[in-house]
């Protein structure tokens, strides 16, 4: 039988299932590229303003590394520099999740076995997944290029930029395809692929922070940045990315041919012959989540240490009068001067907090995966009820979220204290400031839990949208398109700057805790009364 027989049918099925997800990714990519053009035109309409902005960027390695690459005082370069770092990641993440969703997750659910029992080739599901994920990346890149050309930007540079968005998705779709063959379940495949994406981004970021450009050549994300649309336009690097994608696809097919359906090539980590510590839902949830939590703790600590080390350049930045500093003071709501350093420190804490808000979202997505895989239903054959099962996961998630922010606050505070502050006073202040954001992150998770209880089939999409909207409307991403101060629609907006406050922000924290409690209770009540496994 032809190995790819039935690919067309499976591709159409995958497209039908993607209709509630892929269009939103494409809309996000295209709209953000246009928003950046409008933002640059509105806030840096003259050459002098663009040049002032570039001087600020050149003097601060952290700001320079956010966009990556060389910046020029031109609309097209500035707009793609501001949006490129995010759009390349968005395209890669969308493709990565799509490939795993239509390959490894289908095997976990047992649907692949049913499909392959018919006249369907062994490689057809993988081929369909790669076609759909790659097509989504291509459409996102092509529509972005068309939108930028329509906005008046140079056609050649716009096509190069769109090509970079497309190949970022192709490469990480290939990495996800390889991870799906190596691992035995979708969770492990997702962790492997996301770890690869995170490592690639960290290498690219480190290259721009340190000025060591050679580090970019070690990172697939760095390769895309090195294409430099509207500047050098290294089309040959796009060709390299396409070649690497083809190699990854070929490797995935070879690995697929060497493994049995439902198995992986990586050896399974066997647990102890008996596990007396698994006495309840909390210990079970801890065993399921501890590996991912430890990886998150390491990543958060590294970022916090890096942020603490950049406090000295921040002092230099805020000492220079410019329109950028004026915008920052408007965003922070404080006067320029020494207090602005506290605003900068709070901004870095918020960056970590918005990222950590993704952790409870992923845990709710994990609940849904446990349900659809049938593992949770098997547990319910024991005295463990669904509410006890869910409550165990929620407790571990809540404590894990708090631990992430505590580690961030301590790491940030210690490095800051050693560099320019005082350990006994600054470290506790950073810890309290980081912990003040935890209720907002819990609130995002509670929204996801309510969606899981009420609309289980749409819960994963709603969970991702909740985090994306929280981040997009927030105080970190919002200023990129002129939304200074964020939006009241997201919970972090209501947490005051704890680095300026003289007391712990008790009122907003209490209010967010009350809202989180109500949403959590409603979600658990809905979970209790709905059909399980649907």
SS content category: mainly alpha
Output mean pLDDT: 83
Strand fraction equals: under 5%
**Oligomeric state:** single chain
State the end-to-end CA separation: 34 Å
Q: Give a short account of the largest sheet.
A: none
Protein name: Polyketide antibiotic transporter
Transmembrane segments: 22-40, 83-102, 123-153, 159-179, 191-215, 235-256, 292-312, 344-365, 394-418, 430-455, 462-484, 504-527
Keywords: Membrane, Transmembrane, Transmembrane helix
Note the topology:
Elements: H1 7-18, H2 22-43, H3 47-58, H4 61-67, H5 75-102, H6 104-109, H7 111-116, H8 124-150, H9 155-182, H10 186-210, H11 220-226, H12 235-258, H13 281-309, H14 311-318, H15 323-332, H16 339-356, H17 358-373, H18 375-379, H19 386-419, H20 423-435, H21 438-454, H22 459-472, H23 506-529
Helix pairs in contact: 1-8, 2-5, 2-8, 4-10, 5-8, 5-9, 5-10, 8-9, 9-10, 9-11, 9-12, 10-11, 13-16, 13-19, 14-16, 16-19, 17-19, 17-21, 17-22, 19-20, 21-22, 21-23
Walk me through what this model shows.
It comes from Nonomuraea composti. Keywords: Membrane, Transmembrane, Transmembrane helix. This is Polyketide antibiotic transporter. The chain crosses the membrane at residues 22-40, 83-102, 123-153, 159-179, 191-215, 235-256, 292-312, 344-365, 394-418, 430-455, 462-484, 504-527. The chain has 534 residues and is an all-alpha fold. It contains 23 helices and no strands. The protein has helices spanning 7-18, 22-43, 47-58, 61-67, 75-102, 104-109, 111-116, 124-150, 155-182, 186-210, 220-226, 235-258, 281-309, 311-318, 323-332, 339-356, 358-373, 375-379, 386-419, 423-435, 438-454, 459-472, 506-529. The longest helix has 34 residues, at 386-419. The model has no long low-confidence stretch (mean pLDDT 83).
């Amino acid at each position: 039988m032809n190995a790819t027989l039935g690919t067309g049918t499976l591709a159409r099925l995958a497209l039908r299932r993607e209709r509630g997800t892929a269009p939103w990714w494409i809309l996000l990519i295209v709209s953000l590229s246009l928003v950046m053009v409008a933002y640059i035109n509105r806030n840096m309409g003259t050459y002098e303003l663009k040049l002032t902005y570039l001087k600020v960027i050149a003097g601060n390695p952290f700001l320079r590394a956010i966009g990556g690459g060389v910046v020029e005082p031109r609309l097209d370069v500035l707009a793609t520099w501001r949006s490129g770092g995010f759009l390349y990641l968005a395209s890669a993440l969308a493709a990565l999740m799509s490939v795993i969703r239509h390959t490894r997750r289908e095997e976990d659910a047992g649907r692949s076995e049913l499909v392959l029992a018919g006249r369907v080739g062994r490689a057809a599901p993988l081929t369909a997944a790669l076609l759909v994920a790659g097509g989504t990346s291509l459409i996102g890149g092509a529509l972005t290029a068309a939108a930028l050309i329509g906005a008046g930007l140079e056609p050649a540079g716009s096509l190069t930029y769109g090509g970079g968005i497309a190949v970022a998705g192709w490469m990480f779709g290939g990495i996800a395809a390889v991870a799906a063959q190596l691992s035995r379940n979708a969770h492990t495949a997702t962790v492997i692929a996301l770890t690869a994406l995170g490592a690639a981004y960290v290498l690219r970021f480190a290259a721009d922070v340190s000025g060591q450009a050679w580090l970019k050549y070690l990172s697939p994300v760095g390769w895309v940045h090195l294409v430099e649309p509207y500047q050098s336009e290294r089309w040959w690097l796009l060709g390299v990315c396409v070649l690497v994608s083809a190699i990854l696809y070929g490797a995935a097919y070879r690995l697929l041919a060497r493994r049995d359906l439902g198995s992986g090539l990586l050896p399974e980590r066997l647990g102890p012959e008996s596990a007396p510590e698994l006495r309840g839902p909390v210990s079970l949830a801890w065993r399921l989540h501890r590996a991912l939590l430890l990886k998150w703790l390491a990543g958060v600590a590294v970022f916090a240490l890096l942020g603490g080390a950049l406090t000295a350049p921040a002092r230099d930045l805020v000492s220079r009068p410019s329109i950028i500093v004026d915008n920052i003071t408007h965003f922070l709501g404080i006067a320029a001067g020494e207090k602005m350093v506290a605003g900068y420190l709070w901004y870095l804490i918020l960056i970590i907090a918005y990222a950590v808000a993704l952790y409870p979202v992923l845990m709710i997505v994990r609940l849904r995966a446990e349900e659809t895989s049938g593992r949770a239903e098997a547990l319910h054959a024991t005295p463990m009820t669904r509410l006890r099962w869910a409550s165990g996961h929620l407790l571990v998630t809540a404590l894990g979220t708090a631990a992430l922010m505590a580690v961030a606050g301590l790491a940030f505070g210690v490095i800051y204290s050693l560099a320019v502050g005082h350990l006994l006073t600054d470290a506790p202040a950073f810890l309290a400031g980081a912990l003040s954001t935890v209720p907002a992150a819990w609130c995002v998770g509670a929204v996801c839990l309510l969606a899981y209880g009420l609309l289980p089939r749409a819960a994963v999409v709603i969970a991702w949208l909740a985090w994306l909207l929280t981040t997009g409307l927030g105080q970190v991403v919002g200023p990129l398109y002129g939304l200074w101060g964020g939006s009241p629609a997201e919970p972090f907006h209501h947490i005051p700057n704890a680095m300026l406050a003289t007391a712990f922000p008790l009122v907003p924290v209490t209010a967010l805790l009350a809202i989180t409690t109500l949403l959590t209770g409603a979600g658990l009540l809905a979970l209790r009364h709905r059909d399980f496994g649907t």
